[in-house]
Amino acid sequence: MKETGSAAQPAGMDHAPSDRPAEQAEGHPPDLDGLFDLHRWSPSGFRAVGPNIGTARLFGGQAVAQALCAAGRTVPEGFRANSLHAHFLRSGETPGAVEYRVEIVRNGTTFATRRVAAVQQGTELLQLTASFHRPEPGLTHQTAVLDVPDPESLPTPEESLPDARGREWYRGIRARFPFDMRFVGAPPGVAAGTTAPPRHGVWFRAREPLGADPLLHACTLALVSDLFLLAAALPPHGLRMGTPGMLAVSLDHAVWFHDRAFRGDDWFFCAQEGSWAGGGRALCRSTVFDRRGTLVATVAQEGLIRVGPQSAR
Question: What are the Acyl-CoA thioesterase-like C-terminal domain coordinates in residue numbering (predicted)?
Fold first, then answer.
């Protein structure tokens, strides 16, 4: 991580909005088709011309998802995303166009590999490596089990949030992200002051139909995979995102895509857990299921968490 000057921002990107008032998220959330409709200005160069998800800083999940989209537009037909690994280098700003520069690393018979740099105003924000696999038959099993209430049986966030502060928090989320949500247990952005286990769960569903392109559904999952994840490390410490004097940003992010039939416009569940925290960092994981209980993805993320005076360093 490189920092220059007293006002330098640490490496990393904004992630789940937490304690920001709804009025900072103006208008309606961008539609997913618009987010992933990248302008191709060269065979391996793309530019995001639509709106950015974010307040002052670009949401890291958007950069990851758009980089995956750019990479996927350069692979042969019939290949599906099977993994991505991203490192956040600098904070992106909103508004501001982001360019995605794709390097073709490998085109194999069954696997294709791409490397992507996300650049804003000449500054590299993110480096991402993505792997694509041509589907083939193979062994099948999973050990993870989905054991939560169906989304239809849960109250909407507007119905379940207990106070005005919580409802304001969710209005900010809804204004930025084009997803329906149902929380299992306490929502990750409002619980604070008491300690709790480092885990929470959220059902997600895109509000609009996404069509048949499997890349669009994979990018939708990549976008959501960064939402609320780092917040899972905070409950044991009685903290929440947006706690005064706390800095929390994503450092690196990985997604493994398991199920090629996944759809982001049907309900899917993210079981998020803060596995470890120490030395200013935290490691969080997420297992993602479709509503039938099929494990569709596994996510891991390391984040920087600073509390108190060191948060300004």
Answer: 164-305
Is 160 designated active site? Answer: no
- The tally of domains found in the chain comes to 1
pLDDT for the residue numbered 4: 26
Q: Which of 62, 91, 131, 301 is catalytic?
A: 301
Measured in Å, how far apart are the chain's first and last C-alpha atoms?
Answer: 12
pLDDT in tens, 84-106: 999 999 999 888 899 999 999 99
Per the domain annotation, does 13 fall within a domain?
Answer: no
Rounded CA separation 125/121 (Å): 10
Asked if residue 281 is part of any domain, the answer here is yes
Token pair for 118: 């996300």
**Lowest mean pLDDT across 67-76, 193-202, 226-235, 304-313:** 304-313
Among residues 250, 259, 286, 290, which one is catalytic? 250
DSSP codes of every residue in 104-154: EEEE-SSEEEEEEEEEETTEEEEEEEEEEE--------------S--GGGS
Set 18, 66, 131, 226: catalytic member: 226
* Full residue range of the structural domain in which residue 203 is found: 22-135+147-312
* Per-residue pLDDT reduced to its tens digit, 115-150: 999 999 999 999 999 999 999 999 999 999 999 999
Annotated active-site residue 226? The verdict is yes
The structure tokens listed for 85 are 């690994």
Asked if residues 167 and 175 have their Cβ atoms less than 8 Å apart, the reply is: no
List the one residue out of 58, 86, 41, 20 whose CA is nearest residue 240: 20
pLDDT at 15: 54
Quote the mean pLDDT of the chain: 88
User: Does residue 221 belong to any structural domain of this protein?
Assistant: yes
The answer as to whether 7 is a domain residue is no
- Name the 3-class secondary structure at 69: helix
Sign of the torsion formed by the C-alpha atoms of 201, 206, 207 and 212: negative
CATH of the domain at 105: 2.40.160.210
